[in-house]
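thread: overnight batch results

M.L. [08:02]
morning all. the overnight job finished for the chain we discussed friday. pasting input first so we're all looking at the same thing
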Amino acid sequence: MLTFTIRRLILAVPTLLFISLMIFLLLELAPGDPMAQVPLTVPAEVKEQMRQALGLGEPMHVRFWKWIVQFFWIEPQVLIDSMFGTSFSEGDLRVISWQTRSPVMDIVVQRIPQTLWVVGTAYVVAILIALPIGIYSAYRQYSWFDQAGTFVSMVGFSVPPFFSGVLVIVIFSVNLGWFPSIYDTTHRVSDWDSFVVQLQQMIMPVMVLALQITAQLSRFMRASMLDNLNQDYVRTARAKGLSEYTVVMIHVLRNSMIPVVTVIALGIPAIFGGAIITEQVFKVNGIGQLLITAIQANDLPMVQTLTFIFAVLIVLFNLIADVLYGILDPRIRYD
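M.L. [08:03]
and the structure it wrote out:
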């Protein structure tokens, strides 16, 4: 397993470099001009000076190389400096957002807590709800519980977040007045009362996201459990006199979790990517909204950095899912 992990990590290096090149080329070929936001009253020569200051006058390969050095060499040094108080990155030019003129990673670090509060909590809640529903629905196939779970899953799949988000705002915020309709990103948790306020403003966006994620995971869990419940090893375990709880919750569940682990692991990068639509509906100042704002402003360094971070997370959690395969299923070996 260790050899497989090291080999995959080594292979990830050229993979990520190729992905970074593709992202850079796609953004370069995309329509739009960073100077489009500049007022028309600004003289042409001033706009040209601004373009040169942003580095747009340099060749593509030079700009790509600078970004690679800044992201892979300078930014890790900045992280080390912030953790240990060193000065390795002092005087080095970091990846700068064209829109805010601030380091991109500093802005990302500021937005991550807001995304994790909402999207991360929704993902955990969805997993805790979806797995038991999927397990029991498969064990009691075609029961009223299974039928109700199927109905809720179809609703979760069919109703888009921009509709369900507005719907819960109208019901729970406008009509009932239970929760705030807009997420206050400036709120800080310092005591119990502020924690309660934080929970109140999280309930509606978490509800919308958890419904969609639960619908997907519960269907995967149910299908995987049904596939394993009919296998020969289940009949053998029952014939040996094992309790039904041991057969279902240990033998069947362990094998059924293998495809579900893929869905869960590959969904984790979406947490850091944020739920773009939901963040827009509830005004959550997270990573998803940051990406939309950067795209609208043609902020290429910000868009390039965010999309590459998502690519890194996808590659990383692919590896984690493969490692978990070997842990869950003794038949899978990577020797």
